[in-house]
Amino acid sequence: MTKARKVRTSLLLSLCLSFTMMLSACGGSGDAGPTKEPAASGGDTKETTATTTPADDNSGSPLELALKGKYKGTKVTMFGPFVDADQKKFEDSIKEFEDKTGIDIQYEGSKEFEATINVRVDGGSAPDIADFPQPGLLASIAKTGKVVDLTKVLDQDKLKKNYNQSWLDMGTMDGKDGKIMAGIWNRSNVKSLVWYPKKQFDEAGYKVPETWDEMMALTEQIAKDGDPAWAIGIESGAATGWPATDWVENIMLRTTTPENYDKWVKGELPFTSPEVKNAVEIMSKIWMNKDYVYGGTKSIVTTAFGDAPKPMFDNPPKAWFNLTGNFITSFFPETAKVDQDYDWFYLPSIDEKYGKPVLVAGDIYAMFNDRPEVRAVMEFFTTGESIKKWVQSGGVIAPMNDASLDWYNSESDKRMAKLVQDATTLRFDGSDLMPGKVGAGSFWKGMTDYVSGTVKLDDALQQIQKGWDN
């Protein structure tokens, strides 16, 4: 072999050896785990953990990346109906997430949400996320194509594991070009509850009614004892009238079939039908009796729904019953203790053949602007953790499967969960499912006009029905 060939061979061997050593040093697997160094003199081993690479930092879902600090310093705007006590509970529930991720969720609450959200969306100033208490209102906006389809944003397998299918079905709506997932559910409440001042109720010797007839007999007895039984208020700014729709919906579920209820919600069973008129007439036997309502019938329209229960906490009570969802406890005196000072009973069935129906409602969050940090916040809202503090403070039921029953700090809330589980029929708030122009429009106004005495019942029902036609 010539000297030149020996040099070339030596160089080639050196390069191969260097390359082999470089590969060994870098490690051929991207899944490197703990490695062992050679044993020290004492026979011990040292364990070292592989250093996370930039590529690893970018792996994971938007929520996982947010928790790694990837979106620190970003802002996500949110608009919804939570104000006063509810706004504080909501902000408390997201604070830990904001602290961990560095994402600032800038929430704006408004009593005029229903009247404002369309204006903002149409004007090109939609928030990143909006909280719709009426799915029907969201459905009307989803048809415009301005709502982000969450099937392209959220892991559908995770959603199916963490929600009952019915919640996902109710979040699926008509988009501009077909069905889309228009929103996800974050907060739910039960709306078949009659609240009462437990301690004084028991002291008065009253018994919780098990049937509708027993409830009406107790209402009459309380009137004879000198008090109106019911505390009712439907004033709620631009949303005035919604508590009246809850009464009608509850009674519909107790006086007709679930199929008729569904047809009514879809507009296939008109408000002028005998079924709907009968439900309002049953409600009127309480509402239109001045001896049964605190302040008389005329006070119902001018009393804010959150103020309505206040007379129950006077000593002695000036009223005894208030039919509202479990969120109403946010408006109870801070000193009042659940299971002691106040409690609830199930609004009794009217016709036994319709079993034990329960009316529920909730808040559905929709996404309007698609950015990584907004995706992270939306994913966070699909977890029980996002509502844990609110659940612990009371007044709300989490719709997610990963929300532990141990979070509920009262027997009252645990009983609510049990009530929903055992319900013969479970239906979502009808007005919330109707198109916004009906459910959050003519239905609210028509009931308000009827209760105020502005129109007769038949005229009010015709007025409401026109909402479907316009």
TrEMBL record:
InterPro entries (UniProt xref): Bact_solute-bd_prot1 (IPR050490)
Annotated keywords: Signal, Transport
Species assigned in the record: Paenibacillus dokdonensis
Superkingdom of origin organism: Bacteria
Protein name (record): ABC transporter substrate-binding protein
Keyword Signal: yes
Family to which this protein belongs: Belongs to the bacterial solute-binding protein 1 family.
Residues of the signal peptide: 1-25
Region described as Disordered: 28-62
